[in-house]
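The instructor's notes for this session suggest beginning with a concrete chain rather than abstract definitions. Hand out the sequence below and ask the class to guess, before any prediction is shown, which regions might be ordered.
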Amino acid sequence: MSTDKFPVNDVERMGLFINDEISLLDGQLLVTPGARFDKYKMDPGGALKLDGTEFASIEKNNVSFNLGALYKIEPDLIAFAQFGQGFKVPAYDLAYIQHSQIGFGYYYEIIPSEDLAPEKSDTFEVGVRGHLGDFAFSAAAYYNEFDDFISIDVVKVEDVVGPYGPVQKLTWQYQNIEAVTIKGIELGVNYFVSENLTLFANAAIQEGEDDTTGEYIESINPMMGSTGITYEQDTWSTEVIVNWASRMSKVNDGKMKTSGYGSVDWLVNWQINDEINFNLVANNIFDKEYVMYSNVAGLSDTDSVNQFTQAGRNLSANVKYSF
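After discussion, reveal the predicted structure:
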């Protein structure tokens, strides 16, 4: 059983941008400056929230700048750096959402937050990508500073009696955090064993902190990644992927931690002919029971996680016919 309310909105959105591409050092260095103007207006037309009060209108505009540089160290090795400013106005599904969902063993609701301020950011990033023999690789490090960071938080947890019996009710709301710093590293590598066989691996790690309180940002995931093997022929391919995450222990006092996990998926694709394509996906083939941190972020360490465990072993298939 669920209820949904998205008030009808009149939305005006305009974006104007200008970019240039400057080639220097005989094409070895490429510089790309740019600027963008955004204007946004959203009017719910006097629609009422469930408590009888009106949804507020939102009207914002902003100018943002960016500057990027790409340097060819070697034909197959490129270094890059960029600075960019971001501007994110809450869309109606963040600002105005009123939604509740009740089922067997779970009950949650999202309450509106139309007083959200736009999120602004300054992003610095440096990295390198290229080929080295049979290896293709990429690495990047970034540092982001946010003003009015938009985060979804658990604002209330309570034990209630639902239509299917006692259940824990979670209330979520999108909220602003005044100042946030997020930094991280992303790595990826492919090893081409042969014309048909490829090994791959990637990983990402990030940290986020409320600059005012020093608390962790709850929407930040632990170190995560995937590794696997792909085999391709002319008309078919198969892939085995291990999706993994490390233990999440960088949480605020009294909040939920999660254990690390690894889950194995198997994918098969077969182009039977020009018109028919067949896909088979076997997820979590070793039937691993685990909880993703993003699903329990912000919960108390005494709350139940039974409703947040990922699906066990499951199989899906589809056939696509093109004509």
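Then share the key points. The chain has two domains: 2-220, 228-323. The mean pLDDT is 88.
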